[in-house]
């Protein structure tokens, strides 16, 4: 990857899943549960708090300062969504 990927849109999909769109047109649904380890991510285990995410600096962030690097999101495998 020659440039840092940037999340340009995100939509909550229930549980700990967010559908993300990147600036290169790629999109996928990610299950963030895999990253909810450590003290800063503890509040995100509550789905109501998790759903309060917002776009910040080209990635997903939360009110407590937690975020996931955009290149981590870009490299992660998407998950299948229920039809």
Structure report:
- This protein is mainly beta.
- It has a single domain, classed as NE0471-like N-terminal domain (NE0471 N-terminal domain-like), CATH 3.30.2020.10.
- It contains 2 helices and 6 strands; from the N terminus they run E-E-E-H-E-E-E-H.
- The strands form 2 sheets. The chain has a 3-stranded antiparallel beta sheet with strand order 1-2-3. Strands 4-5-6 form a 3-stranded antiparallel beta sheet.
In short:
This protein is mainly β.
Tell me what the CATH architecture is.
2-Layer Sandwich
Number of domains: 1
Distance between the termini: 32 Å
Strand order of the largest sheet: 1-2-3
The outline comes out as globular
CATH topology: NE0471 N-terminal domain-like
Low-confidence stretches: none
**Number of H- or I-type helical stretches:** 2
What's the CATH class label? Alpha Beta
Structural class: mainly beta
CATH superfamily: NE0471-like N-terminal domain
The proportion of residues in beta strands is: 25-35%
What is the quaternary state of this protein? Answer: single chain
Please give the radius of gyration in angstroms.
Answer: 12 Å
Q: Roughly how much helix do the residues carry, as a percent range?
A: 10-25%
- Overall pLDDT score: 93
Question: What is the number of beta strands?
Answer: 6
Largest beta-sheet characterization: 3 strands, antiparallel
- Tell me the series of helices and strands, N- to C-terminal: EEEHEEEH
